[in-house]
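Re: Re: ligand-bound prediction request (bumping)

Still looking for help on this. To restate: I need the protein modeled with pyridoxal-5'-phosphate bound, output as structure tokens. Inputs repeated here so nobody has to scroll up.
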Amino acid sequence: MRYVSTRGEAPSRDFQSVLLAGLAEDGGLFLPESWPEFSAAEWRALRGLPYPELAARVMAPFAEGSLDPATLLGMTRRAYAGFGHLATAPLVQIEPQLFALELFHGPTLAFKDMAMQLLGHLFDHVLAERGERVTIVGATSGDTGSAAIEACRDRAAIDVVILHPEGRTSEVQRRQMTTVLSPNIHNLAVQGSFDDCQDLVKAMFNDAPFRQEMQLSAVNSINWARIAAQVPYYVYAALALGAPDRPVAVSVPTGNFGNVLAAWVARRMGLPIERLVIGANRNDILTRFLAANDMSVQGVAPSLSPSMDIQVSSNFERLLFELLDRDPVATADTMRRFRADGRMPVPDAAWKQATTLFHGHAVSDEATLEEIRRLHRDSMYLADPHTAIGTAAARAHRPETGIPVIVAATAHPAKFPDAVEKATGIRPPLPPRLADLFAREERFTVLPNALEAVEAAVRGHARRNSR
Ligand SMILES: *Cc1c(COP(=O)(O)O)cnc(C)c1O
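Reply:
Sorry for the wait, this slipped through. Here it is.
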């Protein structure tokens, strides 16, 4: 399988090289040159497999020619062995035709572990094979950073530098990052928003000499391998609910558009997902796009679901490329104008096509609390604020045909205990493996929102990388 850039100016690459590169040299995102498709019989053959086996089988076409299936299976087995639930991603019914796909049983209690734990193994394997090292640089609104840190801590060939917006992550989220004192882990608290952090990371990648010198690599959701690793759980849930012989719908609380894009990929591979619902908080650029073709940047406002406090959803570029019939010139031009004007000029036909499949719903903080309260009252289900946005959006766009809706339950309620307690009166305890989190020592560096300062810090931390 070869990968092409959405902007068409970068050479095609294989899976390993896309994994290490993250972003393409032309600023675009990698996508498979063609989509693998599974027949109904091939989907049925995956029913009942343990999660790691199913994951390896679903991902195999993406790694074809780059990783053999047995190696991939070994990695999915090790990646999911440390999860706190034998089903890896249990599917829990919360109402008639409404199911929570619990993606938060990994080490950091959020769905990003599903992909990141596997990425740690993928990086290790590929770097060892090549005798190379990398500096992983990432921006996080909370959960990506801790997931990357947990996946890469103490790995010899990897340095990790994570930027988070100072004071804008929950305390649990911050501590999950800053209490990992491994020598290869470095946390930078940037005086700015998540989008500022994301811009700094992009700027470092666009600084070619710096990128080369540091052997920069990304594990945020622009990395194709992460999207690929998020496809299997939609397959797992859909098969459990009767696919491919019965269609399903999916509802995803969305920030960077990575998780919902993975559901789109599953559909593109032939899984009968009839509808994709996007849940947002007050940072509603995607729902405004779906409602009125208004993809315009407004300031980021903090909410009860901080992992979705994002105004520019980086992975949307991949869908845009598909909506524009894979025209890289049109994609690059649209992205350039978005960057310049803060408004994305999506052609009407492409927008209409998007709205036939995607449905958006924005949920206020008050409505999020009400939803958490309701789920607890009516189904004894404790949901975190992100998951509650997913169930609220699912309810707003329930398919008339009565097909089952899978909600991506993206965080453990104990990760956002204040909101859950406010809504239900119950303060969900951290699982035993994290019970002493608030007593652990923290380490991080506060920096201004300035590229020079951040590059200097990365250079300092990545010293072990320069030869
Ligand atoms: C990252 C995250 C999201 C948003 O996922 P995207 O892939 O960025 O759309 C939603 N909920 C939680 C808990 C997250 O950590």
